[in-house]
Write a structure and sequence with these properties.
683 residues, binds magnesium ion, alpha/beta, 7-stranded parallel beta sheet, 8-stranded mixed beta sheet, 18% strand, 22 helices, binds adenosine-5'-diphosphate
């Protein structure tokens, strides 16, 4: 957060009534200049355009009433040291009961007309309002208007903030500069900034606000896309460690199977980056099971043939171990060692691995993001592979680039995401897509089932296990806040399952297990010593057990579609038919229909599009891990077409003026976004 108004910005002290105390309150909201205030956009509007007759009031949304106060408010003390004041007001159609809590300074004069704005609610035999906003009807300023409602106002009231915004708009009039390049506003029929700012805060009508919004969204996304492109360009300016090309056949020929066409294409694209002189910044996107690890291994192979080292960063220790195992399988025939670095490791072993890495010997080091980012010495490193990309946003990548990381970057995402989100999240990357599964895979047969079918499903499960299969059961255990409740719920679930199917060998996996315990459970499941693995969502990413053919998800209606798709991807990894049961208690048709999407298709991109449509981008990845930038006004769920337009304009602009030398104002805004992106990554 910036500590004060940036250079060239107007200080907030220019606004009426802003002294040191008010200034501190504004600063607390992240507002440091008049410009900041203008860019704090309303989250909604109060519609005070029409005055309603009291007799027609209904419970619900806030409305305006014009009424005469007939008795002065009677103030009483109520428990908790609070005060309550009540009075009545009339218009020609009826009586309105008014109640005010804790408003010691409120003065209403008998016989005077006021405009009250609030939510009507039943009071006695008529209607009333609690804590409505009040202004004298004569000379009323708010009535008849759409008033902005600002997000998070802290110690400052909405009406105070409105006054300051009004003053800020008056100060700014005539001083707006257009950051968009000439012609862009005309091309997309965008309003000039002055009109847009006026109308976003104090619109004449909802349509007026919508037009203003469109301009401001466009501007925000345009600047964002320029920033993404600039970051991408910066990545390219950095020379990557130059590698000499080797025919990937040398790597492919030692594999136990033939690579898919998509894998070959992705390997060629990556190799041409790696040998092209500038730094690779590539995203490898592919559905679960599409074989991304093989592509990464090929890149490691090329690095090693050049005498260089590589690292693979995974989000969890479990995955780090699995990557090590897969890398070993693919690279051992070429004599390339794969080492593991995780925190749950004997100190002596850790020292050995660190020493080996520091020796500069060609190898691949697999570990968690945290460990590897904490400065492992890899003097000959040429390549970083980052797995499960969606937990690793633009910001982290930018930081990695800044830290002069070992060189080329290959980011792998198991989550197929809609194109629009690709543009936002990965605008700074080149993208390879694995859109083809290895041959012989059968789609996982998926059914949405309800409680009545539980016994039947258990019967099926037993039969499948008798035939040599294994099963995952995922329970999103309801957090009751209480320590150990997760464990209790899981234990209860297992008890019930064991009672229904006494012969099953059941293991439990949950987030509170220590890494070594997780590893042990996973290992015995993989070795076939367990029939069923009951788990919280910790198995969500990456884990590979080809004999597992059944996935049961309890309370499936609590999950996002993309997450369910990820979970389902844990089965169907061998050649046998696999099944997925989505146990649910969905009450609405819409909720059932949502689950049907999964029963109908195994195409992760289609599912992702549906998920985005149904839940919006915030929920799409789970709020905190989204890696999505915080936009002041744009909403990725609804503003997708504006994004496409803004991106196209940004590309055109940068093609003509790559350094933005002819667009100094835009260049400054873009730089600001880049700096913010970098700063966000430091948290
Ligand atoms: P993901 O893209 O989900 O990370 P993995 O790399 O884990 O997929 O690969 C899934 C499984 O498919 C692994 O067991 C891997 O050995 C296997 N596999 C990868 N490529 C091929 C291929 N071309 N033919 C057959 N099996 C493959
Ligand atoms: Mg994987």
């Amino acid at each position: 957060m910036k500590p004060r108004a940036a250079e060239g910005e107007q200080p907030l002290s220019l606004l009426p009534g802003v002294g040191p105390r008010r200034l501190a309150q504004l600063n607390k909201l992240g507002l440091f200049s008049v410009e900041d205030l203008l860019r704090r956009f309303p989250r909604d509007y109060e519609d005070r355009r029409t005055i309603r007759p009291i007799s027609g009031l209904e419970e619900g949304a806030a409305v305006c009433v014009r009424a005469m106060v007939t008795d002065e408010p009677v103030r009483t003390r109520i428990p908790g040291g609070r005060t309550m004041a009540r009075c009545r007001a009339f218009d020609s159609t009826g009586m309105l009961q008014l109640t005010f809590f804790n408003q010691p300074y409120l003065r209403l004069e008998r016989g005077r007309e006021y405009i009250f704005f609030g939510k009507p609610q039943p009071a006695g035999r008529g209607m009333g309002m609690v804590n409505p906003s009040v202004e004298p009807a004569e000379g009323a300023r708010a009535a008849g208007k759409l008033l902005p409602v600002y997000p998070k106002t802290g110690d400052i009231s909405q009406s105070q903030l409105r006054k300051w915004v009004r003053a800020a708009l008056d100060l700014a009039r005539g001083h707006y500069l257009e950051p968009l390049p000439a012609g862009v506003a005309e091309q997309w029929k965008l309003r000039p900034p002055e009109e847009a700012f006026e109308a976003i805060h104090f619109p004449q009508s909802p349509e007026d606000a919508a037009k203003a919004r469109r301009r401001l969204i466009f501007e925000e996304l345009f600047v964002f896309c320029c920033a993404g492109q600039r970051l991408r360009g910066k990545g390219r300016e950095n020379p990557g460690p130059p590698l000499t090309y080797h025919d990937p056949e040398g790597f492919f020929s030692a594999l136990p199977f033939a690579p898919t066409g998509a894998q070959r294409r992705a390997v060629e694209q990556a190799f041409s980056d790696l040998c092209g002189g500038s730094r690779m910044n590539r995203l490898l996107q592919g559905d679960v099971g599409s074989g991304k690890t093989l592509v990464a291994a090929a890149c490691v192979w090329l690095a090693a043939r050049n005498g260089r080292q590589a690292v693979v960063m995974a989000p969890t220790e479990l995955l780090a171990r699995q990557h090590r195992a897969t890398m070993e399988q693919f690279l051992a025939p070429h004599g390339i060692p794969a080492e593991l670095l995780i925190s749950a490791m004997p100190a002596a072993e850790k020292r050995r691995v660190l020493a080996r890495a520091a020796s500069g010997e060609p190898l691949v080091l697999c570990g968690t993001h945290a460990l590897i980012q904490n400065g492992v010495e890899l003097p000959a490193a040429a390549l970083v592979v980052v797995d499960e990309q969606h937990r690793f946003g633009v910001a982290q990548r930018a930081a990695l680039n800044q830290k002069a990381h070992p060189g080329h970057l290959l980011a792998m995402s198991a989550t197929p995401i809609p194109r629009t989100l690709t543009l936002i999240l990965y605008g700074d990357l080149d993208v390879s897509v694995l859109d083809e599964l290895p041959p012989g895979r059968r789609p996982v047969l998926t059914y949405a089932v309800t409680e009545e079918k539980r016994q039947g499903m258990y019967g099926f499960l037993q039969k499948e296990i008798d035939a040599g299969g294994q099963a995952y059961i995922v329970c999103p255990l309801v957090e009751e806040g209480e320590e150990g409740s997760e464990k209790k719920a899981a234990a209860a679930y297992i008890g019930q399952l064991q009672k229904a199917l006494p012969r099953l060998r059941i293991g439990l996996m949950h987030g509170r297990l220590r890494p070594a315990e997780k590893e042990a459970v996973m290992a015995s499941f993989a070795a076939g010593e367990l029939d069923v693995l009951v788990s919280t969502t910790v198995i969500e990413v990456g884990v590979d057990v080809p004999r597992a053919t059944v996935m049961i998800v309890e309370n499936a209606d609590f999950f996002g579609l993309s997450q369910l798709h990820q979970l389902r991807g844990r089965v169907g990894r061998g050649s046998r038919q696999s099944w997925c049961f989505l146990m649910h208690h969905a009450r609405t048709e819409a909720a059932r229909e949502r689950l049907q999407t999964l029963c109908r298709t195994c195409d992760g991109f289609q599912i992702a599009e549906a998920d985005l449509r149904l839940r919006g981008p915030g929920d799409f990845f789970g709020q905190r891990q989204s890696g999505l930038p915080a936009f002041a006004i744009a909403d990725l769920a609804t503003d997708i077409n504006v994004l496409e337009a803004a991106r196209q304009s940004a590309l055109d602009t940068l093609a003509r003026d790559p350094e933005l030398g002819n667009h100094p104002l835009l260049a400054a805004r873009v730089e600001e976004v880049i700096q913010k992106t970098l700063a966000a990554s430091m948290n």
